[in-house]
Amino acid sequence: MHPGPRIPLLSAVSDALAARTSSPPNEVRRARVLLVDDVPANLLALEGILEPLGQQLVSVRSGDEALKALLLDEYACVLMDVQMPGLDGLETAKLVRSRERTKHLPILFITALSRETAYITRGYETGAVDFLLKPVDPDILRAKVSVFVELYLRGEQLRQQALELAERRRVEDELLRAAELEQQLVGIVGHDIRSPLAAILTTASLQLAREALPEGQRKAFERVVRGGERIQRIVDQLLDFTRARLGGGIPVVPRPGDLNELCCKVADELRAARPDRAIVCEFTRDSLPGTWDLDRLAQVLANLLDNALKYSPGDSQVRIRTSEQGEHTVHVEVHNGGAPIPPHVRSTLFQPLRRGVDTDGRESLGLGLYIAHSIVEAHGGTLRVESTLEAGTTFFLCLPRQALGDARRLSACAEAARPESLTA
Question: Which Pfam families match (predicted)?
Fold first, then answer.
């Protein structure tokens, strides 16, 4: 079979570069093989033998042209005649080996045993990896070249994967540094806001304490206090978010307390704020003592109850129930009726910055449940939710009896059987 027209050196290199940049990513790459011989008939014969390999063959007729070709592109291997006018094969190989870029390029010499045996030793000294004796066996030549082509393509694949991995790591590092900087900034701003906010709240409170304050001014200062308290809650959430993300979790300070008393206290505070709503406490035991950070748990319970009030019908009850599960764990359930949480929301419910809209139209930060989940984890507990149209929505909170207990207590919460639901 005739090998077809030879590819001119410069146009072949240019075409290969264009193909590399424009070819689809999933297209199989081809290696380039450099053929060097001053006899055109020999080059045609080599092209005919190697064409079935499906690689890109570049033919040149001198050592000088070979050196120029190696400057323009990369090759899997070189097939080079030993005896050529000008730079012979040995001198060309020596120059190839002297360049950093091509010092490891495989060079296969083609020689005639009757005339060039003396070149073999010198050839290996100049970097040849093999000698092929004329007349060349086509099957042997294809087999040897195919090995170097395969090695080259595998090396290129590994290099590309290494570059992609390095780029991915660089992007991830930049994103991580940006996220840390953002969170540090949130923490700094949160701390800096506290001082002027405290001054505003103190001033407004002192004005409200005046008996002779006109009614219009009193309402204005009441609005200032309510707005300031809301800002304070937002600042506290931002600081807790920063601690959870940068400080290895929200810190807790456990002390002895009664979980039932804590639930009653939080429920009473919410009843005072929402006198139109019914909050029912159900306890399976008169007291439920343990060691927890009561202030942090109050934050969790207030968030769960507040959400239950927001996302349930105004004429329905919100219920909180506590129970003892074995010697080492306690459970809390917060239940409300109404529409269930959509599945796409439920899957990211405890992730930060998932913004929602309150029933009164105010936009939330989307940090409340994330912080609650972080506080529960800091105690060694678990927090999960179930929500259906028939049963309503129930948050299940499992806590070790002693906060930050040993691994056995931690696993007791993680593996605890599902508590009996209020809606069962």
Answer: HATPase_c (PF02518), HisKA (PF00512), Response_reg (PF00072)
